[in-house]
Write a structure and sequence with these properties.
Blueprint lengths: L1 H12 L2 E4 L1 H16 L11 E5 L26 H8 L3 E6 L33 H8 L5 E6 L5 H7 L2 E4 L19 E6 L2 H11 L29 E5 L9 H16 L3 E5 L7 H16 L18 H12 L2 H14 L5 H24 L2 E5 L15 H6 L5 H6 L3 E9 L2 E9 L4 H11 L1
Helix pairs in contact: 4-5, 6-14, 8-10, 8-11
The chain binds glutamine (GLN).
The site of glutamine (GLN) has 13 residues, from loops.
Length: 446
């Protein structure tokens, strides 16, 4: 069924980089056999899933939408893949993204741009744009994405689906190709909040193979969906509804807050005073970490090697300059500069300090409130080509999602209506490891 739908729509939406029908059919057959011989059904039994192409999949190419990795076929599965298979979900293929998860529109993919199923002239968002578009277009039941500065939530908002970024450390990153290791998290994109809870239940949990994985008890997320928000305390940061936010988007968020108030929640305005520095701090930190993580692509160990080099040094240089796209090069240069001696204190260290202040802003608000709510993105999906030549404007799309990654806390984007026919996302942010409350509020609202 999934392949039928993909056959019908993916020529237009272009969410997939790679379909693996043979493997999916044989996995489905094995599952049927297990059930026929009396086996029990897993939590995600038989559900067709799409996987962002920076999550490694045994025997299936994992390109990160980069020319550099166009021939990279991993010999192992990421922990999240192993868990999906144990829960009996079936992966149907790999989804498009911005190269190495750097970008907010999918236009940085080295292969092709994915389109927004609501309006094919608009971007699906990014970097998990393929993951959001595939769910929105009904090509898969759910997908996995990754979120470093908003890459699950922003495309979820643009495509009218539910996208959850879990607390840093809740979901294993073993087998996620690293972009910015202190920020990256894997999470689900789904049609509704209940499905999000089921997928999170499956992929969350301690993993000794990821040294940043949290060793905590995993609550029952599904039973947290009580529909009750009576007495819940909601903080609305005034910085999140400021002048940069489209007035029609703002009106939708205010409507959503009235709905929650009507259900018995208490809504109050607060301030997160350091929000305005989040984008600057993020691009320094994320690029610095990226420049270090991407040093491994040297034409020797992974991916494509140049044919044109005469000596070793040239081989490194040319493999990298032929393999990486312009945005990736921009980040590597920025990050290398910020980390170089003499500049480290002025840029990297300063950005780390700002990160701490941003986290403290949230800590203070969470002393009195259960969740923080605002828009996921300042506008609805923009047109393909509109921002591609202007990286700074592109970076500002993430102004409302980035603080959450810097603080390491969970947040979900749920659809909250349409503006001019395009979906708007409501962002619900919670305390560290309090996904249960985030999901409960999202579920009650949707
Ligand atoms: N758009 C942001 C960036 O380009 C976020 C990316 C992400 O979360 N992977 O860095």
């Amino acid at each position: 069924q999934s392949y039928k739908r993909i056959g019908e729509v993916d020529g237009k939406v272009k969410a997939f980089l790679k379909l693996d029908e043979e493997q999916a059919r044989s996995a489905a057959k094995t599952l049927d056999g297990q059930i026929a011989s009396g086996g029990s059904r897993g939590l995600l039994f038989g559900l067709p899933a799409g996987i962002k192409d920076n999550i490694v999949t045994e025997g299936v190419t994992t390109t990160c939408a980069s020319k550099f990795l166009s021939n990279f076929t991993p010999v192992y599965d990421a922990t999240v893949m192993r868990k999906l298979k144990e829960a009996q979900a079936v992966s149907v293929g790999k989804l498009n993204m911005d190269e190495f998860a750097m970008g907010g529109s999918n236009e940085n993919s080295a292969f092709h741009a994915t389109r927004n199923p609501w309006d094919l002239d608009r971007v699906p968002g990014g970097s998990s744009g393929g993951s959001a578009a595939a769910v929105a277009a009904g090509e898969v039941y759910f997908s996995l994405g990754s979120d470093t500065g908003g890459s699950i939530r922003q495309p979820a908002a643009y495509c009218g689906v539910v996208g959850l970024k879990p607390t840093y450390g809740l979901v294993s990153r073993f087998g996620l190709v690293a972009f910015a290791s202190s920020l990256d998290q894997i999470g689900p994109l789904t049609k509704n909040v209940e499905d999000s809870a089921y997928v999170l239940q499956t992929i969350a949990g301690h993993d000794p193979q990821d040294s940043t994985s949290a060793n905590v008890e995993i609550p029952d997320y599904v039973s947290a969906l009580t529909g009750d928000v009576q007495g819940l305390r909601i903080a609305v940061p005034k910085e999140y509804l400021g002048s940069g936010v489209d007035p029609q988007v703002k009106a939708k968020i205010e409507e959503a807050l009235r709905v929650l108030e009507g259900m018995g929640a208490v809504v109050e305005e607060v301030s997160l005073p350091h929000s305005e520095y989040a984008v600057a701090a993020y691009y320094l930190l994320a690029s610095s970490e990226a420049s270090s993580n991407l040093a491994r692509y040297d034409g020797v160990r992974y991916g494509v090697r140049t044919d044109n080099a005469n000596n070793l040094l040239e081989m490194y240089h040319m493999s990298r300059s032929e393999g990486f796209g312009p945005e990736v090069k921009r980040r590597i240069m920025l990050g290398t500069y910020a980390l170089s001696s003499g500049y480290y204190d002025a840029y990297y260290l300063k950005a780390q300090k700002v990160r701490t202040l941003i986290k403290q802003d949230f800590d203070q608000v969470f002393e009195k409130y259960d969740v923080v709510i605002g828009p996921t993105a300042p506008t609805t999906a923009f047109r393909i080509g509109e921002q591609v030549g202007d990286p700074l404007t592109m970076y500002l799309n993430d102004i409302l999602t980035i603080p959450v990654n810097l603080a390491g806390i969970p947040a979900i984007s749920v659809p909250c209506g349409l503006v001019d026919g395009m979906p708007v996302g409501l962002q619900i942010i919670g305390k560290a490891l309090d996904e249960a409350t985030v999901l409960r509020v999202a579920h009650a609202f949707e």
